[in-house]
Design brief:
The chain contains 7 helices and 6 strands. The protein has about 190 residues and is α+β, with helices and mostly antiparallel strands. Helix 3 packs across helix 7. The strands form 2 sheets. It has a 4-stranded antiparallel β-sheet. The structure holds zinc ion (ZN).
Length: about 190
């Protein structure tokens, strides 16, 4: 008969096995390092890594490092910041930073970014996909609603004009950042 290892009594040591943290799923406990409990995790990208439990629980480590690599190399490394990354950063600062231009029309009016997007560009990108063209920007379907997967779509300025609301200034800012005017180019 196989004997099961029973954890000590007292404050029950937390078992993170099977829990998910971002892209990581905990496989089993690993050896302790420097007196801290560590966990072997499988990342969605196929790699495995060992992470301290405290890092997982504080959401400081959410992948084997691939998220960071993707973001740094693929999305936000100057001068190659992707359009989606710029849109994501502007969206967040407008809604949360009172010093950001346009805050009065976004955060100041109660427009928020859902926590999943706030915390993760990768999540934003996986929900929204890439902007179909450089003339598309993020549009809130219900202009009184916030930035969240069910209320957002990629739309051209023409499409957005039909959806009058507060999305206009975000579009203008993004466009300016791209040094290109959509005017005259956006409609077929
Ligand atoms: Zn990974």
């Amino acid at each position: 008969m196989i004997q099961r290892i029973v954890m000590k009594r007292g404050p029950k040591p937390e078992d993170l096995t099977g829990k998910k943290f971002g892209r990581l799923t905990v496989i089993c406990e690993a050896n302790q390092k420097w007196g801290h409990r560590h966990w072997r995790c499988a990342c969605q990208c196929g790699r495995e890594c060992i992470v301290a439990g405290t890092e997982l629980k504080r959401s400081r480590t959410r992948s084997c490092g691939c998220v960071r690599r993707e973001i740094i190399h693929g999305e936000c490394a100057d001068p190659r910041k992707s359009r989606e990354y710029r849109i994501w950063s502007v969206m967040k600062s407008r809604c949360s930073n009172p010093k950001a231009t346009g805050y009065d029309y976004y955060g100041g009016r109660g427009i928020t970014v859902c926590p999943e997007w706030c915390n993760s560009f990768v999540q934003f990108l996986s929900d929204m996909g890439r902007a179909p063209t450089k003339f598309h920007s993020i549009d809130r379907i219900d202009p009184t609603g916030g930035y969240e997967p069910s209320n957002c779509r990629w739309a051209t300025p023409v499409e957005q004009a039909g959806n009058k609301g507060s999305s206009t200034s975000l579009r203008i800012r993004i466009t300016r950042g791209l040094r290109a005017s959509p005017r005259g180019n956006c409609s077929p």
